Amino acid sequence: MISNDDSAALLERVRQAAAADTPLNIVAGNSKHMLGHRQDVAQRAEALSMLSHSGIISYEPTELVVSVRTGTTMKELNQVLDEAGQMLPFEPPVLPASTLGGVLACGLSGPRRPFAGSARDYVLGTRVINGQGQDLSFGGEVMKNVAGYDVSRLQIGAYGTLGVLLDVSMKVLPRPEAELTLVHEAVPDDTQSFAAQLRRPLPLSGALLIDDRRYLRLSGSEAAVSAAARILGGEQLSAADAGIWQAVRDHEHAFFSNAASGMQLWRVSVADHAPALPVSGTWLHDWAGAQRWLRSAAPAAEIYKAAQAVGGHATRYGPGPVGEPAFQPLEGVMRRLQTRVRDSFDAQRLFNRGRFHPELDSLAASQATTEA
Amino acid sequence: MSAEPADQSAARVTPEYHPEPHGTSTADAGNVSLRTDRLARRKRFAKELASLVPEGAVLASEEQLRPYESDGLTAMKATPLLVALPDTIEQVQAIMRWASANAVPVVARGAGTGLSGGALPHEDGLLLGLAKFNRILELNRELGYARVQPGVRNLAISDAARPHGLYYAPDPSSQIACTIGGNIAENSGGVHCLKYGLTVHNVLSVTVVTIDGDLLTLGGDGHDSAGYDLLAVMTGSEGMLAVVVEVTVKLLPVPPEAKLVMAAFDSVEAAGDAVGRVIAAGIIPAGLELMDNPAIIAAEAFAKCGYPTDAAALLLCELDGTAEEVVSQIERVSAVFRESSVTRLHIAASEAERLLLWKGRKSAFPAVGRLAPDYYCIDGTIPRRQLSHVLQRMDELSKEYGLPIANVFHAGDGNLHPLIMFDAGKPGELHRTEQLGSQILQLCVEVGGTVTGEHGVGVEKINEMCVQFDADTLTQFHSLKAAFDPEGLLNPGKAVPTLQRCAEFGAMHIHHGELPFPELERF
Q1: B226 with A146: Cβ contact below 8 A
Q2: Which residues of A touch B323 (CB under 8 A)?
Q3: ipTM of the complex
Q4: Which phi and psi angles does B457 have, rounded to 5°?
């Protein structure tokens, strides 16, 4: 692994860009180019590459903490953790060339999320460059820390619009001793059937519904996993077939590649027990029904309305028709507040202009409060 | 809120502390006019507020205000201008609009068990008591959540959920009294957070009222929400960003089995080393607590729970899960302890004994309180590998100041609670205790830790924040605060120090060879 601290150069680049008012597109492996809006070429933004800022800064397996430069690839990081018998518990996707910085900026978590927690849950501290080119450190390398606002977790899923993530400290956990997957027959799109299993003290670590098959993954000690398997019954998947978790996580499963023209891929985030949404298309249910993948030709507005009606939100994966937003639009007081939050980190809108919620880019809407 | 019983904390301290600038003495004549002015405002505000809340919900007489003059950090006291006790969200909204229009500071308060002065009143401000918001609105067994008002006590949620086989995981030691609203303000932990996480990991959504009186829900019914993760930043924000008026928490299935292993060691280092080995073996205990000899002796004298008082250090290691899992983990943990030169290994034989052994640990604070007229509880977190260095350095400081220290330690996650024993009746001893406390916190930062693991900054640790954060980072905190509260009316003066204050504190935090806050004059 290449270990290189490029923070001084990155800070300098940001300072120059701030002085010249040149927008920056933060990029590393570009594996998540399908997420968010394509940036407007008219903006003449420059790329700020994080790839040369890579390597593990410190790793103490007995402290359950790893500190990493964000340009480190997921593959390399996972390998180092694996050798120590540990893992990132939120099971992030590993796309070709994807980096930890990209995973965290996009706030992505895998199948284990409902049972183990999300990307933000495992972030302990961050080092960030804000829109003024300042070098800031939040949180730390310890598990309990309530000094100052939790800016580290606020950065997760902000698509780089609250600053450039330089270094991150994460909590890690031991890999489970044993893991197995059970398959049951199910009624297609019946996510309610998960509820009964979720409220039992079983060592669940995954819950998928694909067509008429329900997949439950168990993780823990050998004894606990086999005892739970006896309780749940059903067919046990072979190790090879259990690759379905990784395939769904990384969108390699056939559901994600069957791209009929005019169909778009959506991620709908709702309560696991939310009713089936009245949108035509095909569905794949992960997170026991709380993360629903949808292939649909329905207009964005219809999908946003349906998600909102059940207290959730939707995100489009991939390009869409001109003018249709890729993220559930923010409105009213929430939009004003989030705009001010963006103001407080990046008043100039230097970072990833246009990529995330475009309504937060608008300076006119902001009630400038950058001076504390 | 706090991790330890607040009524026992930093207690019985007589000298009154007045946060600057209020209450500091100027000319007598000035004081009189100041007092007259305050009384006039109190009268006018009480009248205005009375039209916004039910009868009796505005407190404005000195006798009525006295119970609110401090929280669990009783060394610091201030009388609020007045107290309002609303009982509906609409009333909170109306109060906030009123406060905003009149530029009146607002300090929110739950049960007042906090140990860092986060709910210390503002002398020119309104204390917003949320005690009447004490109802569990919905407890959904099938879907595993509870929707509660902010004044509901932490333990009341688990008590209500337990008949359904569920519970709320974070369990600060003050859980019998502290409220969920306060838990969100402090991002409270507890003895089980190594495995089950902090408040931030167990809250699904909160509804807040902003300083403008707007109602907002942060988080949602799903596992995430659109835009920025404002739920994350609200958690642990010490009442600085908005007032929480409703909370939805995750309920977990009660583990079918919980067992406790007690292991004694003849040095703190050996016990610390054993903790590292347990984790290296891939085991995450539900709780992993370390006590040093002074804490063991105090707890045993208080709770008579069977601790070996000759041990230099004692570990309590709880394992929970399915019966099969617990059996296998007990075996593995016992093996690890035996490899780590344990001097005594004991597995609680019954549920009664398990609870008794926990009782000793959970009463460590009041127990230490019996050994000295007063004690002061510190709350730093350190990387665990620094434990022996920190304990050794603390021992030196203890001798230097002539003040004994007992230590209880959430060993799994590095959260250290040194208890400084002192006598507030002796002139200057409180002051020296605070100085020693500050030294210990600075030591925590020095070794890569933090000045507060779970009790919050409040007013107590505001100076030490200058050591942990540089000027740019503090400025960024203030900007973020301004996004929520542009006029700075919510809990002013807490949690994040001004740069001016840091310059006065004079913490020489040399960053990249530069003097901190070089733009400010020195005095």
Answers
A1: no
A2: 227
A3: 0.96
A4: -85, -50
